[in-house]
Amino acid sequence: KWKQHLTVIVSPVSKIHFRVWSHQTLKSDILLGSATLDIQETLKANNMKLEEVIMNMDLTGDKEPTDGIGELSVCLDGMQVDPDLLTNGDASSIRSSDQNDGSKAKNETRCGSVDSCEIGVFSENKGANTSDSPLIANGGFKPSRPPRPSRPPPPTPRRPSAPVGM
């Protein structure tokens, strides 16, 4: 089984495409199946709030999209949208209502296996958000970066050699 917490930047009009891969060290990765989640439709079906909403999606294959491969479970938590903004407003200016007042909004992703996955987004706004894009923070932590590769020392300057015959 596989369980994974993920941070994903989304807006109320986003569509999230999930792809589940089989990874083996000595072989090529194999796509097991894929599924798509429409955030806008999910919001509409849940009174414009995503509070521990679990979505079960059928994974389908690329070659035979009608074949059911398995099921992916996704838990969305923390997004709340003003219905007037979603239906009448400009899609680029829509933000979670929790973000507008400077408090936390978070959706959390957890994947337990090919058959069980929970997903979400962490957003935290500690000041005025002047852009139309959502802010994101990983639960208050910066995402970890791999260490920078060490550089070799600069070449040692060569001393001019003494002229031959002196």
From TrEMBL:
Positions with biased composition (Polar residues): 89-100
Segments for region (Disordered): 85-110, 124-166
Residue stretches of biased makeup (Pro residues): 144-160
Protein name according to UniProt: Uncharacterized protein
